[in-house]
């Protein structure tokens, strides 16, 4: 929904960037690489490789999600899988992921990202917290 809104309601590709708050812009970026622009040098083959990799990882995480007995692990895996699917759909439709959230303050600027990326990061953070707090406990 957010990417549809950015592309078809806001028409961000035509506008480039819109200041929402002094530290937050909607900035259109077609990300042909992976997280934080990594591995962008793969050229035309990149989106195909990333789509296949992300699909296989999402499938594995989905299977893990179905077998999970902890609600927070299920929730975090759902966020990761949902975010991955959102970005996979972009790669299939456009050959790149629609990124548009740009945070910056006092000369510092973070990478442009999207809500699917945020879901993935939150899901991974929950999994890491779960693993950390389980560390050292006897099964």
TrEMBL record:
Alphabetized UniProt keyword annotations: Aspartyl protease, Cell membrane, Hydrolase, Lipoprotein, Membrane, Protease, Transmembrane, Transmembrane helix
EC number: 3.4.23.36
GO cellular component: plasma membrane
Example GO BP: proteolysis
Catalyzed reaction equations: Release of signal peptides from bacterial membrane prolipoproteins. Hydrolyzes -Xaa-Yaa-Zaa-|-(S,diacylglyceryl)Cys-, in which Xaa is hydrophobic (preferably Leu), and Yaa (Ala or Ser) and Zaa (Gly or Ala) have small, neutral side chains
Subcellular locations according to the entry: Cell membrane
Membrane topology, from the record: Multi-pass membrane protein
PANTHER family found in the cross-reference section: LIPOPROTEIN SIGNAL PEPTIDASE (PTHR33695)
Protein name from the UniProt record: Lipoprotein signal peptidase
Gene: lspA
